[in-house]
Amino acid sequence: MKTQTYYHTRLESDANIKNLNVPLQVNCCGVATNNQPFSVDNRIRRDFYYIYFLEGKMTIQDEILYPGDVIALAPELPHSYSSDGHISYIWVHYTGYDAPSVTNSVFCTFGKKAHIGINTEIVDLFKRLFREFIINDRSSNEMCVYILREILTLTNRYMNMAQRNNEPVSAIEYIHKHFKENITIDKLCKMENMCPTAFRIAFRKHTGVSPNEYIISQRINLACRLLTDTDLSIGDVAIETGYSDRYYFSRIFTKKTGTSPLKYRLLNK
């Protein structure tokens, strides 16, 4: 999606309003993309600000947003944000006397991110929201509010699901199939739609070790089998387990097993 902002025609002169005469009102919404580093300091709005982050990495206050993160910012409070490279996110500004309670029912703390992963349902709802701004007829206001409530309700559902089920099963299955290859944390995070910190926490909670330690354990277990069940040279065992340097392999093996590959073979043949 390309950068685009949508306004109601009647609000074009001041889309940054705090309207307490209606339950909810969507002031504006859009898609933000940026391929260059940027920094914005102490931005203040009078309405609520919901962000659903899709690509890259961006810092808002003390929170670092990764793909699949959501955050809500309260009115009147200054916020700063910056990025070092490509980013993409969708957003909506809204107001009304129900806005605080509706937002608080989803986000326990304003300015605190939550992770829900990349969900096409929410992205599709934003596309519907954009379309209503384009239609801009007598029903559009009501439709925008209806869609906003759907976005917040789905966000709440996915936040609850993430809290109940954050086991990195797909990443673990991938490691078992590809542990001989060079597996990056970034690749595993994308599989689970988690930021690196959340992924590492979930992974250690599930396995008891870090992702890197888990990969090494799979490699060492295979090396032990090859050393005892085959006559492959130490160099070939290293290659078969994903290490191009036999000396580095020997150091890792010795550290993990307490004995060198050659001695392990002699003791277990």
Task: Please give a handful of descriptors for the protein shown.
269 residues; alpha+beta; Jelly Rolls; Arc Repressor Mutant, subunit A; 2 domains; six-stranded antiparallel beta sheet; elongated
Structure description:
This protein is α+β, with helices and mostly antiparallel strands and 269 residues long. 46% of the residues lie in helices and 21% in strands. The protein has two domains: 4-164, Regulatory protein AraC (Jelly Rolls); 169-268, Homeodomain-like (Arc Repressor Mutant, subunit A, Orthogonal Bundle). It has helices at 99-104, 120-135, 140-164, 169-178, 185-192, 196-207, 211-229, 234-240, 246-257, 261-268; strands at 4-7, 25-34, 38-43, 48-56, 58-60, 63-65, 69-73, 79-83, 87-95, 114-115. Helix 4 crosses helix 5. It is elongated and about 80 Å long. The model has no long low-confidence stretch (mean pLDDT 88).
Write down how many β-strands occur, each being a DSSP E stretch of 2 or more residues: 10
Q: What count of structural domains?
A: 2
C-alpha-based Rg, rounded = 25 Å
Q: What's the N-to-C terminus distance?
A: 60 Å
Q: Could you name the CATH class of the largest domain?
A: Mainly Beta
Uncertain residue segments: none
The main sheet comes to: 6 strands, antiparallel
Main-sheet strand order equals 1-2-9-4-7-10
* Count of separate DSSP helical elements: 10
Please tell me what the overall shape is.
elongated
Oligomer: single chain
Structural class: alpha+beta
The helix content, as a percent range, equals 40-55%
Name the helix and strand elements from N-terminus to C-terminus, one letter apiece.
EEEEEEEEEHEHHHHHHHHH
Briefly note the CATH topology name of the largest domain.
Jelly Rolls
> How confident is the prediction overall: mean pLDDT?
88
Beta strand %: 15-25%
